Amino acid sequence: MPADLDLRKLRYFLAVAEHRHFGRAAAQLRIAQPVLSRQIRALERELGAALLVRDRRRTELTPAGEQLREEAAPLLARATAVQRRVAATARGGAGTFTVGFMPGLTVTAEVRALREANPGLDVEVVRTSWDTQAEVIRDGRVDVGYVRLPIDERDLALEPLFEEARVVVVAADHPLAGRPRVSIEELGDEHLLQNPAAVPEWRNDPRGRGTRHATEVPALTVEEKLEYVAAGRGIIVLPLSTALFYSRPDVTHSVVHDIGPNRVCLAWAADSRSRLVRQFLTIAVETHRLGTPRQR
Predict the structure, then answer these.
(1) pLDDT tens-digit profile of 142-199?
(2) Nearest to 141 by CA among 96, 104, 201
(3) Does the pLDDT at position 253 exceed 80?
(4) Which residues contact 234 (CB under 8 A, 6 or more apart)?
(5) Distance CA 143, CA 268 (A)
(6) 106 and 294 in contact (C-beta within 8 Å)?
(7) Distance from first CA to last CA of the chain, Å, rounded?
(8) What 8-state DSSP symbol labels residue 5?
(9) N or C: which end of the chain has fewer CB within 10 A?
(10) Alpha-carbon span 207 to 185, nearest angstrom
C-alpha cells in the first residue's frame, strides 16, 4: 500500500522548492535546517523518488520534484479550504458562506436571497483583487467568487454572468482626456500601471511597444493605481463599472473601442459538492437573467 501523504512534509518541500535553498526555507518555516533536511529525506523515502538535487551552492528539483511541486500546491490549498469550512461550521451553528467580489461589482441581491433561503446561515462578503480573486477560492477563504477574466482557471469551475466595456483611465490633463473613445494602438507608448496580463491586447502589441509596466510602483489596489494616474505617472485599463465606482475629478476615462469586453463569471472550486454553492449559482444566474443591477 502507498504511504499516506503528510501535509506538513509537503509544506516543507514547497518551501525548499520556492527558495531552492534549505537554509532560507528553514528560516521561512522557523525550523532548524537539519530538521528540514530529515523531513525532506523522509518524504523522498515515502514517495520512492528523489525530489531534489543538492550541492553546496544551490538546490534543484528533479523531474519528480517538479511534478510534486505542481501537484502539491493545489492539494494543500484544498486541505486548507476543508479546515476553514469545518471550523466555520463548528463556530457558526448553521454555518458560514462567504462570497468574494471584485471592485465595481455588488452582490447584495444574491447575498440577501441566499440568507433568506437559509435562516441562520451567516453569509459574509470579501473584497478581492486581480491578484487574489482565484487564490481565495482555491484556499477556501471564500466559497464562491465573482471574478473578472482572465484568471488562472486551474481547479475552478466558472459560470459566465455578463460582460461590460473596458475603459482607459488617464489624468484629467492627459492628451487623451475628454475623448469618448480611443484605440489600443493609441495606448502603445503609455506607461501601464498594472499587471500587463490584465490587458493582454496592450502587452501583445505586434510592434513590441506594449512591453513596459510599472514594476517600481507598488500600486496594489485600484485606489493606489488611481493616485499614480492622477499624478501623471501612467494609465490603467479598467472595466467600466470599476471606473464609474472610483470616479474622481482629477482623472477621466474613455472606452477602448477595439478590445474585447471584460467578462464577469461566478467561480467556485471545481470539486465542490456544496449544496449552498449550487444554490448560490442558481440565484446568481437568475438575478443576472432578470437584469437586476449588478454594478455600483
Answers:
(1) 999 999 998 989 889 999 999 999 999 999 999 999 999 999 989 988 999 988 878 8
(2) 96
(3) yes
(4) 190, 191, 192, 193, 214, 217, 228
(5) 6
(6) yes
(7) 55
(8) P
(9) N
(10) 10
Q: What is the DSSP letter of 267?
A: E
Dist. CA 158–CA 122, nearest whole Å: 24
Instruction: Tell me the C-alpha distance between 141 and 99, whole Å.
Output: 9
Q: How many residues does the chain have?
A: 296
Neighbours of 280 (CB within 10 A): 25
Residue type, 288: H
Phi, psi of 223, deg, nearest 5:
-60, -40
- Cα–Cα distance for residue pair 23/29, rounded to 1 Å: 10
> Beta strands 251-256 and 166-171: pairing type?
antiparallel
Is the peptide bond prior to 150 cis by the omega test (within 30 degrees of 0)?
Answer: yes
Phi, psi dihedral angles at 56 (to 5 degrees): -70, -25
Which residues contact residue 141 at a Cβ distance below 8 angstroms, ignoring those fewer than 6 apart? 84, 98, 100, 126
Asked if residue 126 lies in contact with residue 201, where contact means CB atoms within 8 angstroms, the answer is no
Cell digits of residue 244: 464609474
Count the Cβ atoms, other than its own, within 10 Å of residue 11: 15
The residue among 210, 179, 216, 194 whose CA lies nearest residue 103 is 194
Order of strands across the sheet that contains 236-239: 181-182, 251-256, 166-171, 236-239
For residue 96, give the nearest of 136, 123, 117 by alpha carbon: 123
Local structure of 142: helix, strand or coil: coil
For residue 130, what pLDDT is reported? Answer: 85
